[in-house]
């Protein structure tokens, strides 16, 4: 597993490196001391895993994740941060408290190895487009999630934001639907209209609609209109 | 009554600081064992004083200054070249008693909200002056106060300090925090000599 360490303190990075010497399955490919450096390195090195500090000058670890398209596996590292700990407990994200206990690190690494295996078995697209196996980071107020795109049935644009539909949640991300559309794998996601992108694997039924459009029913009951312009393309994709 | 209130307002060490310090020390054990030993002593001194300060109303300026220096020593290990410190202490300052951990809290505030937010870091400068039986303590830190948008949590340390001053000294002490320039925040504390306030020190 190729890992990137993100922490503004040199000694904290050094200590983690030292602890990771015990784990040959984790190869540290880079270190970043702030969010901007980290974003650059994530794009250049494409690591499988981030060890991520939360409080950093400039942008926080959460803001960093919000700026990434596809998010690698993440283990948060923090000394003590009431707000962050709350977010972790609610969503069971993996985190390590500094000073890091070697046993806890070992646990986190072995949990990751399982996850990694699952991801590797799944097919990864040839280009760097976001497919069903990729995960994105979504934060809404106090809560945050890593969501597998598999579970996202619908993206809906709302002003400068996009509502992300998964389970019973609809948090917002600050992005334009056009920008997102370019990133998504077109075999998995379909631009139904100016307002919507649907996950094709969630489509349950299709009905003709007014003006030559279509009405798509998703598992779970959401209905999305496909504009006339897109309807022909959609029929192509959904037929043999 | 006042004592109970004071106890509730007493400065508390920030756990974020303690655990970050311990984490730096853990790395330092390999890199610089001597420095790590010094750091352990600095941290013990701060912890001991923070526990003991529950029991006293006021403390000697000298002891408070030692804590501030130990505290800054530890933060320097963590921030390395990103934190610079400067002291300019008036020799008569040592005649004064001060509320325990108050100067430390204000210095910590300057680091937490000022220097730690700046990628290149900055400077903490502690200056004292004595004029007509009053001690002026000035803390300058790199950074900028944003008016109005401060989160209430951030203001708690300052609010507590102001209330503590009022309870101990009435109207005789003063406190202010201002942007001295675009890039320097000044926190200033003026306290009277302790004569009439010694009673609070005997419990």
| 3D shape of chain B | globular
Order of strands across the main sheet of chain A: 2-1-3-4-5
Helix content of chain A: 25-40%
Mean pLDDT of chain B: 87
Look at the helices and sheets of chain B and give the structural class. Answer: alpha+beta
Total helical elements of chain B: 6
Q: Using the CA coordinates, give the radius of gyration of chain A.
A: 20 Å
Question: If you average the pLDDT of chain A, what whole number results?
Answer: 88
- The total count of strands of chain B amounts to 7
- The counted number of beta strands of chain A is 15
Tags for this model:
heterodimer; A: about 240 residues; alpha/beta; 5-stranded parallel sheet; 5-stranded antiparallel sheet; 7 helices; B: about 200 residues; 5-stranded mixed sheet; two-stranded antiparallel ribbon
Written description of the protein model:
The complex is a heterodimer of chains A (240) and B (203). With 240 residues, chain A is α/β, with parallel strands linked by helices. Chain A has 7 helices and 15 strands. Chain A has a 5-stranded parallel sheet, sandwiched between helices. In chain A, strands 10-9-8-12-11 form a 5-stranded antiparallel sheet, with no helix packed on it. In chain A, helix 2 (35-45) crosses helix 3 (61-67). Chain B is α+β, with helices and mostly antiparallel strands. In chain B, the strands form 2 sheets. Chain B has a 5-stranded mixed sheet with strand order 2-4-5-7-6, with helices on one face. In chain B, helix 2 packs across helix 4, helix 4 (61-79) packs parallel to helix 5 and helix 5 (102-113) runs antiparallel to helix 6 (152-169). Chain A binds chain B through residues 9-12, 14-15, 18, 34, 55, 57-58, 79-81, 97-100, and chain B through 15-16, 18-20, 22-24, 26-28, 30-31, 77-80, 116-119, 121.
Question: What's the gist of this structure?
Answer:
The complex is a heterodimer of chains A (240) and B (203). Chain A is an alpha/beta fold and 240 residues long.
């Amino acid at each position: 597993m190729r890992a990137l360490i993100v922490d503004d303190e040199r000694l904290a990075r050094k200590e983690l490196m030292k602890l990771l010497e015990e784990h040959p399955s984790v190869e540290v490919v880079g270190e970043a001391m702030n969010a901007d450096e980290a974003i650059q390195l994530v794009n250049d090195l494409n690591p499988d895993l981030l060890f991520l500090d939360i409080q950093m000058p400039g942008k926080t670890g959460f803001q960093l994740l919000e700026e990434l398209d596809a998010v690698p596996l993440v283990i948060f590292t923090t000394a003590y941060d009431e707000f962050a700990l709350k977010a972790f407990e609610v969503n069971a994200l993996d985190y390590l408290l500094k000073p890091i206990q070697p046993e806890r690190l070992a646990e986190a690494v072995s949990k990751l190895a399982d996850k990694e295996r699952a991801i590797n078995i799944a097919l990864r697209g040839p280009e760097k487009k976001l497919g069903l196996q990729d995960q994105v980071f979504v934060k809404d107020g106090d809560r945050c999630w890593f969501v597998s795109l598999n579970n996202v049935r619908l993206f809906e644009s709302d002003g400068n934001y996009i509502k992300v539909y998964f389970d019973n949640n609809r948090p917002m991300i600050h992005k334009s639907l056009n920008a997102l559309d370019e990133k998504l794998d077109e075999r998995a996601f379909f631009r139904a209209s100016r307002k919507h992108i649907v996950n094709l694997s969630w489509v349950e039924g299709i009905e003709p609609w007014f003006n030559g459009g279509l009405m798509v029913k998703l598992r779970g009951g959401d209905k999305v209109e496909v504009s006339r312009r897109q309807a022909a393309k959609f029929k192509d994709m959904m037929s043999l | 009554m006042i004592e109970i209130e004071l106890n509730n307002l007493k400065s508390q060490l920030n756990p974020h600081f303690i655990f970050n310090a311990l984490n730096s020390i853990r790395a330092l054990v390999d890199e610089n064992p001597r420095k790590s030993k010094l750091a352990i002593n600095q941290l013990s001194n701060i912890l001991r004083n923070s526990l003991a300060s529950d029991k006293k109303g006021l403390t000697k300026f000298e002891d408070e200054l030692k804590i501030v220096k130990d505290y800054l020593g530890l933060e320097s290990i963590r921030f390395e070249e990103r934190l610079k410190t400067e002291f300019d202490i008036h020799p008569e300052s040592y005649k004064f008693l001060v509320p325990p951990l108050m100067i430390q809290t204000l210095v910590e505030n300057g680091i937490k909200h000022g220097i730690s937010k700046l990628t290149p870091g900055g400077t903490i400068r502690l200056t004292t002056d004595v004029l007509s039986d009053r001690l002026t303590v000035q803390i300058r830190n790199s950074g900028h106060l944003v008016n109005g948008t401060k989160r209430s949590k951030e203001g708690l340390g300052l609010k507590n300090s102001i209330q503590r001053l009022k309870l101990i000294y009435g109207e005789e002490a003063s406190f202010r925090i201002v942007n001295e320039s675009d890039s320097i925040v000044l926190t200033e504390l003026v306290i009277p000599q302790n004569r009439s306030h010694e009673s609070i020190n005997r419990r």
